[in-house]
Structures are given as structure tokens and as C-alpha cells.
Amino acid sequence: MSKIKETSTNFANKQALANECLEVYSTNIIGGQWSLPICYALLSGKLRFGEIKKVLPNITERMLTLQLKKLEKNNVLTRKIYAEVPPRVEYELTTIGYELKPIIKELENWAIKHKKIV
Amino acid sequence: MSKIKETSTNFANKQALANECLEVYSTNIIGGQWSLPICYALLSGKLRFGEIKKVLPNITERMLTLQLKKLEKNNVLTRKIYAEVPPRVEYELTTIGYELKPIIKELENWAIKHKKIV
DNA sequence: TACGGTACTAACAAAAATGTAAGTAATGTC
DNA sequence: GACATTACTTACATTTTTGTTAGTACCGTA
Questions:
Q1: Rounded to 5 degrees, what angle do the CA atoms A69, A47, A29 make?
Q2: Is domain A33-117 given the CATH code 1.10.10.10 in the classification?
Q3: Which residues does strand D reach (CB under 7 angstroms)?
Q4: Residues A39-88: tens digit of each pLDDT
Q5: A49 phi and psi, to 5 degrees?
Q6: pLDDT given at position A2
Q7: Between the CA of A86 and the C1' of C3, what is the distance in angstroms?
Q8: Which of A56, B13, B49, B102 has the most beta carbons within 10 angstroms of its beta carbon?
Q9: Domains of chain B: which residue ranges?
């Protein structure tokens, strides 16, 4: 989410591909390095910022923030802020967010099969 | 496939994630910008280098080469060279390559659902 | 008044992915 | 001998993604 250059070839290619290939439309949304792990963690219910961090100990706060923002912008999850001090923010998958489950399932299945042959 | 730095934090993170999250194991393999479109094209049967290029008019020869190499290295497809001039090279999905189909299917399903809500 | 806790933000740096432009080999055809 | 064809390779440039480090605001508690 460092701002992207909307005049670049890469940007144009991504757009064009997403229009023609539905798979790419999806991977453009859930394709970041940490997106799927975050969604996976949230599949079992809403979590606070710090709780997600605990589940993914290697993620930096910056990356977590960026990916959460992107996912929120794409309606994959919602952000709920409580007016407390210290702050409390809860992240929860939307309906369509929960529907990532079959994708994750198939990715897992494939990984298992693939590991067998390597 | 510009050579990656095996001492980088990013490299370590990818490894660790792939070990803990099967989804990431898979996306590390099929995650490039052009990987899924290439595999999609090959789902209907083997194709020559130039034929893939026709299906994906915006891909550069460099990217196509790189992604094909990566996919081959990961046993997703095979490369068959014919000793002819001009050269002829055919790419074909392996068994596990063909098994990407359900993943692609679910990604497509999700894209359709997602488009409805946006 | 200093400190802890939470969820961030900002400036900068490094790495990774992608794109651009040009060139190569081999051989058959004109 | 020049040219076309095919599947690449190479050197370099740009863009995108990810990582590093150091902050910030708020308020209750010691």
C-alpha cells in the first residue's frame, strides 16, 4: 500500500488480467504475503490487533497495518474501534471474508499433495 | 527469479510461513503475477511457448520464461524440447499441475461473489 | 511526574518482482 | 549472403513489496 503508480505497465497488466481472469481478480485482493495467514487466523473469530500479532509473531506492525487496511478496503474484514484507553480495535471477517475458507482449503489440499511428490 | 537473498528477513519469513501455513506453501509456488494465467491456459492441454504468449498478449518473453522455469522447477509443468529448427518447446501440466483446477475454480467462485458486493 | 499498555504512523532502506531493449543460435528459404 | 522463424538470454531500469527504526496519543496507576 505504498502508493502504486497508476501509469505503470505493471499496473495496467494487473488490471487487464483481473478483468479477463477471475482468479487474478481474487489473488489481487488476497495475494499479499500475509493476507491469507491473517484471514486464516480470523476464520475462527474476531481478533484484536495485538492478538493477530501473537498468531503471526514475525509480522511487523507496519505490515500488519498495511494488510489489514487493504483487506478492509476490499470488504474482506471489518474494523471496530472501541473508544477506550489504551485503544482496542477488533478485526472480523465479513461474510465474503468467511467465504475464503474453500479457497484456503483447496490451497491446503494441494500443498499436501504437492509435498508428497517432492 | 532474479536471484533471491537467502539471508533476508523476507526469505526467512516466507520459509517459516510456508512451514506453518499450507496455504502459503502453495501460494509461494503459484503466486507470481502470471503463474495462474499460465496454468489456466495449460489446463486445456499442452502449448508451445509462442502459443502461451498469444493467450497472454501482455506478458513479456522474459517473464514468461521466468515463470515457466519456476513452475517447472516446482513440478507443476514439464518442458519438452524438440530438436528442430526453429526450435519447438512444449509445455504441459503435470498431474499435480492439473490438480490446480479446484483452486482456480474456488478463486473464480469467490471473485464472482465478491464482484456482486462491490 | 514517570511508566505501561495499545494500536498505530512516518521516514527511510532493502529486497523482490516486473518491465525494456537488445541480442543469440540454428537452419531452411529466397 | 540476407532474412525469417522460434525460444530463449542478458544487462539494465523501474516499480512494488517488505523490513527497520523510531516515534505518537491517550489515560490510569504508581
A1: 35
A2: yes
A3: A 1-2, 4-5, 7-8, 10-11, 32-34, 58-63, 66-67, 85-87; B 2, 8-10, 13, 48-50, 61-62, 65, 68-69, 79, 81, 85-89
A4: 999 999 999 999 999 999 999 999 999 999 999 999 999 999 998 888 99
A5: -50, -55
A6: 61
A7: 14
A8: A56
A9: 31-117
